[in-house]
Amino acid sequence: MMSTATNSSAAAAAAAPLEISGLSITVQVDGESRPLLDKVSLSVAKGEIVGLVGESGSGKSVTSRSALGLFPGHAITTGSVVVDGVEVIGASAAQLLELRRTRASMIFQDPRSSVNPVRRLGDFLTEGLRARGVGRAEANRTAIGLLEEVGIRDPARAMRRFPHEFSGGMLQRIVIAGALSIGPRLVLADEATTALDVTTQAEVVALLKRLQAESGTGMLFVTHDLELAAALCDRIVVMYAGRVVETGAASAIFAEPQHPYTVGLLGSNPRLTGERATLTPIVGRPLALAEAPAGCAFRDRCPIAVPACATEVPALRPSRATEVACIMPGDEKAA
Amino acid sequence: MIFRLIGSRLLAAIVTMGVAAVVIYGSLRLIPGDPVSAITAGTRLTSEQRAALREKLGLNQGFVSGFTHWLGSVLQLDFGQSMVYGSSVNDLLAARMPTTVTLVLYAAALSLVLGLGMALVSATRPGIIDRIGLVVTSLSIATPSFVVALVLLGVFAVQLRMFPATGSGDGFGDMVYHLTLPAIALMVATFGLVARIMRATFREELVSEHVEVARSRGVARMDILRRHVVRNSVGPMMTITALLLAALFIGTAIVETAFGVDGIGQLLVVSIARRDFPVVQAISLLSVGLFVVTSTIADLALPFVDARVRAVGGLR
Lengths: 335, 316
Description:
The complex is a heterodimer of chains A (335) and B (316).
Chain A: H1 2-12, E1 18-29, E2 32-44, E3 49-53, H2 60-66, E4 75-83, E5 86-87, H3 93-102, E6 104-107, H4 111-114, H5 121-132, H6 136-149, H7 155-158, H8 168-180, E7 186-190, H9 198-215, E8 218-223, H10 226-232, E9 235-240, E10 243-249, H11 250-255, H12 260-267, E11 317-319, E12 322-324
Parallel strand pairs in A: 3-8, 3-9, 6-7, 7-8
Antiparallel strand pairs in A: 1-2, 1-4, 4-5, 9-10, 10-12, 11-12
Chain B: H1 2-29, H2 35-39, H3 47-57, H4 63-75, H5 89-124, H6 128-142, H7 145-159, H8 171-206, H9 209-216, H10 221-232, H11 234-258, H12 264-273, H13 277-305, H14 307-312
């Protein structure tokens, strides 16, 4: 583990911002082990936006937080999470601090609760840089520049103001500025636009995309909204019950979803263009990995399930333009 | 907005003091039968002495005029003459004030340091340490100060002879030495409540999302505790301190009596026993006044530590 830290600067130039392979997490709750993730693998290349899509309980937040070493309490973690050349699993406290201060940062869902309400915005914005040891004056200069970048008027004055003086959309821009302040190689956006209203959401998404493109950083965009992900991201990873069920280019997943769950996600969203169709919700409720049946976790809700689905967990295999974990991929018309 | 907050707090303080003044003055009139015989129970008085006493206590006037007359003097900080000591109540209080103020501040400092320290440890270390903390704070809340006083006297004054059993000492250093056991007795009986309430406040902040964000940014643990957890708990801390100071002042009645400390608390107990009404009224008014002043200061200071209060002009 020590060698990864010392070699990291040399390795960083070549390393992908995020490389998760075979990540499994099990937590102990009241003496019982409850699995959260099962052999999740995904990667984010430099300059790439990857969408991580799934319903609540699918493990998408747990997956994204693992990139910062923010594991749930009493967790047993196996597999590998490499951020910018640094292995997170088994990393020391000092290595994790270094990782969070210099390599990766996260934008959380609700800006109102992300920012300490009793401190000034300048304190929030410079906190990451100051933790790294950057001087106050330089950190302030960086923060003011970023505020300008994210479209806050009179940045110098905004530094001295308090969070409650800003709207949710403006505050999320400030949170984004805070996340970018450290010049991260990887940005994790965990439902970063979900708490905002639709027009604000569009603005913030556009801002994220512009800033990401300018800085060339990798981004993992976690959302439950597959259409939003398809519009923003280069690639998409769909999770269900703690497993990756489909992954591929955003356009391919949107045009030709192969997994019945991905099909269901798209079918349950209203379309503004194209022919009018009845919304078809996915029957049943989303499951966590701990309560999933043997075999394919989706089979109880799947319209095309056959007895063979119960025998084993399907592995990811290429099917047309995507990779999919289903024994009958692309067969949505069978229902 | 901020002026409305200040105005409403000051008005509340004045109303509280007014009601307290009516009750405290009224307690003299509420004595069943003739207040004079109640006050002088056991001693034979000539009718001239009796009449003089009635005159002195203002009992010949009606309630309203008696009250206004009394309030008039009180507002000029004149609490009258002690019926037992003969000297003015102001002199009696002034002579004892330094001792009691020192005791209250001493005990408050001990109680806050121990209470806040325990709260922080309990909040950040769930499990066995937190559970031990809960037991200790329960004991503190459940134990009356006179029991603690007796134990401290038995162990540290009588057995170990580390501290004096009575007296309040000469000079500041000696006074602090004499007041150590009384201050510890007050601390033991009060730090539990401080620890309990602040533990809940710290815990609430520790699980808040802005702390999670700070953690995700690699902010050092001590900085998170200082700039997020403790910083955001300053408001409740000020409120607790205000209530603690008032409670400790009341608590001196028992503790000063137990340790033979010649302070305001002991004067109150003695004066009640001897029915020295002017003194009792003055000390009662003083304790209400202290409560009103400390909690008003705490309320008015809140906008300075929480900008949201400044904006809405009210409590969260």
